[in-house]
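hi! just following up on the protien thing from before. the input was this:
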Amino acid sequence: RHVVQDLACDRFGNVLESIDFADDATSDDDVYARVVYENRAADWLIGLPTELEVRAGHAGGDLLRSRQGTYGSNGELTSISIDTGDGLATTQLDYDAYGNVVRSVSPKNQANQSQTLRLRQ
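and the predicted 3d structure came back as:
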């Protein structure tokens, strides 16, 4: 049996904390997730996740995954940063007036190089 329990939601219904008990016969596979959202109600932009943490078992458990996102004025994801354990790997995104991705810059590698992908319109 697989059980997920939402522990807290914000006023817009976004899940702020949850525990995935996975196989309820053991606690070794349980994961806790915490999400922080940006809500710009005046602009009708609701539920933009800015932080995500996934931990083993409970809120104080070992960090398994961590992500951070930033958003532009229209709610478009402009960067996503992933915690690698040694630092943050950040991908940056640019959009055209129609909301299409036109440029993506990958995280820097160990040689401090990144790759830029420009998409044709």
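The domain at 2-118 is CATH 2.40.128 (Lipocalin).
The longest strand covers residues 45-56.
cheers
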